[in-house]
Amino acid sequence: MDLSKLTIAKARRALDLKEYSALELTDAYLKNIAARDPEIHAYLEVWEKQAREEAKAADETIAQGQAKALTGIPLAIKDNILIEGRIASSASKILENYVASYDATVIAKLKGSRAVFLGRTNMDEFAMGSSTENSAFGPTKNPIDTSRIPGGSSGGSAAAVAGAMAAAALGSDTGGSIRQPAAHTGLVGLKPTYGAVSRFGLMAMGSSLDQVGPLTKIVEDARILFEAIRGYDGNDSTSLPDSKGEAKKPRSIGVPRKFLESGVDKDLLDVFERTLESLRANGYEVKDIEMPTLPYGLAVYYIVMPAEASTNLARFDGIRYGLSIPAGSIGEVYARTRGQGFGPEVRRRILVGTFVLSAGYADAYYRKARAVRAAITDEFARAFTETDIIAVPTTPAPAFKFGEKTADPLAMYAEDIFSVPVNLAGVPAISVPCGSVAREGKDLPVGFQVIAPHGGEERLFSIGEDIEKTRH
Q1: For 198-216, how does the pLDDT look when each residue is reduced to its tens digit (9 = 90+)?
Q2: What is the DSSP letter of 81?
Q3: Of 77, 306, 340, 451, which has fewest CB within 10 angstroms of its CB?
């Protein structure tokens, strides 16, 4: 078996035909992890014993003729998704030894499918970052060029799949944290409609923005994994009724041209334009559309997200769970625990969020940002009355080198310019590899991002498969 080319769909066929067992497949991935991960550092913890037990159980299910799409498929799980009885640290010292007391809904669904869990993957601490350099346990490297970042915050999940150390992985996307690492590592990354996948058991960063989704090698795999984890959940107050959107084939592609003037590398833009031309040749109508509010998305996101994060992270106080630094007063316990437990980026965002919510500033910043967010949401709704889908690059540049942007937080935040409007509006989007650009003798992958209206995942899968064909 060639793990570098193995997809969920191919593995499913091979397992059902008894070409190899789930245990043999799991062992192959574990062997590859042992060989490659000391350099890549995609995983924070590998569950060898449990993975083999899960694989044996999957083999029994297959033998009984009761296999589902993900039975026996080895997956990697981002470290902010809870699995009962296993550590979930969100790559933070403050939760370094926290053991989850229940399963996230997405995990319960995957367990019901008899999927195999290989381990928990590295990430930016509490999902705050675009490079996986903010992990308290060290950065993850891009398997395509180990001098470069894999993207973030789901960089560990992306590196695990791109490095053939998992068949697929789950990540979370608050402002592009699935799509951006997918683009940087040559993968498919899906950010579902907000509410289509339960957030129960996902550690909250920005509650109105977070969404769990798949990182896979091909679009077909993203559909398989999405179908397995989607659905209404009474434990999640933001969960949507489980109804599939219309499956009509998209024919028109809207391109907000003025938005593309936001500092995209020229060669990356050339790859994007060539992909558009290929889609046009395939029968799609490509037209320019006006979305003048989109450029404000980045500023809005970096007000709304820190505000929500500062509220969500208030629970990590050294009293209820996680790290606790003893001190003479309860105020000192809070201060010492949070000071030592949180990394610099998390502290920065908590401070920004607390500031924009504070008396005297909430009107000037937070409430104004919410108003512009509503305008962006309305703008997407209007755009989808004149076009089936919207296309933009996933990122403004390919994967950058370690340390290149750490001294300039604003430059790091600008990496998210094309992805954050999607989360603000709650609509689904997918990043599909569309080619590469050369940097210092390396061909670095770039992503083509397609955005659909609420519930429009089938549109994304349909055009995503057409984009894949343009690369062959």
Answers
A1: 999 999 999 999 999 999 9
A2: B
A3: 340
Catalytic residue among 89, 130, 135, 153: 153
Type and span of the H or E element at 430: strand 429-439
List 78, 191, 217, 405, catalytic entry: 78
Contact criterion met (CB below 8 Å) for 152 and 128: no
pTM above 0.90, yes or no: yes
pLDDT band at 248 (very low <50, low <70, confident <90, very high): confident
Its CATH class, for the domain covering 8-229, is alpha beta
Is residue 100's pLDDT more than 60? yes
Three-class HEC string of the chain: CCCCCCCHHHHHHHHHCCCCCHHHHHHHHHHHHHHHHHHHCCEEEECHHHHHHHHHHHHHHHHCCCCCCCCCCEEEEECCECCCCCECCCCCHHHCCCECCCCCHHHHHHHHCCCEEEEEECCCHHHCCCCCCCCCCCCCCECCECCECCCCCCHHHHHHHHCCCCCEEEEECCCCCCHHHHHHHCCEEEECCCCCECCCCECCCCCCCCCEEEEECCHHHHHHHHHHHECCCCCCCCCCCCCCCCCCCCCEEEECHHHHHCCCCHHHHHHHHHHHHHHHHCCCEEEECCCCCHHHHHHHHHHHHHHHHHHHHHHCCCCCCCCCCCCCCHHHHHHHHHHHHCCHHHHHHHHHHHHHHCCCCCCCCHHHHHHHHHHHHHHHHHHCCCCCEEEEECCCCCCCECCCCCCCHHHHHHHHCCCHHHHHHCCCEEEEEEEEEEECCEEEEEEEEEECCCCCHHHHHHHHHHHHHHCC
pLDDT band at 470 (very low <50, low <70, confident <90, very high): confident
Q: Residue 454 — φ and ψ, nearest 5°?
A: -50, 130
Question: 177 catalytic, yes or no?
Answer: yes
Is residue 169 a contact partner of residue 73, using CB atoms and an 8 Å limit? no
Among this protein's residues, is 153 annotated catalytic? yes
